[in-house]
Amino acid sequence: MTKRMLLALLAMAGVAIAAYLTLYKTGAIGELACTVGSCETVNTSKWSMLAGMPVAAWGLAYYVLLLAVALAGVQERWSESLAVSRALLVLTVWGVLFSGWLTYLELFVIHAICVWCVTSAVLVTVMCVVSAIEYREQVAVHR
Q: What's the DSSP call for residue 51?
């Protein structure tokens, strides 16, 4: 399995988490399965909306974009593209920064933790590490 395939797989997990949280936020499902933390407190706080949309919906769009870029990157045409590697790295760094901000809000403003949000933050951090390694390998190939 290539690193881009791994990134696509991890992005699919992110899509599932973000879709689940979006369905909750939009009222399509009634309760969150949350064995640890206070998921409903976090997901009903004023911080769960950004520019009129649920943060989870932004996350869903983010993971779908990341999935599309990773899947494009495994196609023969772009399999060794430095631009794809750069895009994956930029996207995942952005995801880590945004997740860091959201985690800060959970800990110090909302005073509640959502296990799904933490899982997403860990997921995007792992994706950032994988994309950084993949980018470094592509840079070495293109020298």
A: T
| Structural fold of domain 3-141 | de novo design (two linked rop proteins) (1.20.1440)
Q: What is the pLDDT of residues 11-63, one digit of tens each?
A: 999 999 999 999 999 999 888 888 888 888 999 999 999 999 999 999 999 99
d(CA 95, CA 16): 16
82-92 confidence digits (pLDDT tens): 999 999 999 99
pLDDT tens-digit map of 107-140: 999 999 999 999 999 999 999 999 999 999 999 9
Alpha carbon distances (Å) from 97 to 44, 46, 74, 124: 22, 20, 26, 10
Does this model's pTM top 0.90? yes
In angstroms, the CA 111 to CA 103 distance is: 10
Paired with 54 in beta bridges are: 49
- Cβ atoms of 10 and 1 within 8 Å: the answer is no
Closest-CA residue to 117 (of 32, 46, 26): 32
Q: How many Cβ atoms from other residues are within 10 Å of residue 101's Cβ?
A: 11
